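User: I'm writing a tutorial on reading structure tokens. Could you give me a worked example: one chain, its sequence, then its tokens, then a sentence or two explaining what the tokens reveal?
Assistant: Sure. Here is the example chain.
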Amino acid sequence: AKYKLSKRNVIQFDIQNEYDNVHGGFLLALADAAASGAADTYGYDNATMTVSANFLRPARITDEYLSVVAVVQHAGKRTVVAEVSIARPNGEVAFKSTYTMAVFETRIGE
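And here are its predicted structure tokens:
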């Protein structure tokens, strides 16, 4: 079964770059948290191993929110692969990435 994590993140004005867009580092961190959250649905501690990120268009600092969706594409014994997309309120996808998460033997909260 594929697991999906979906959330909205409200834009704050302290995450802008010099072009008054949402800073790419913030988008990367937001995607990382979403990928980890999707991997968390399997119940085991995990950490990012690799990421491939594509900044497709600017996310505007004036956007009311960003929609973040992480979908698990593969869940193995040692790794989880999740695809993450971040979209503007008008539905335009600003960011897409693929994360490979290392899965540990410890259960979340142990």
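What the tokens reveal: The chain is about 15% helix and 50% strand. The longest helix spans residues 24-40.
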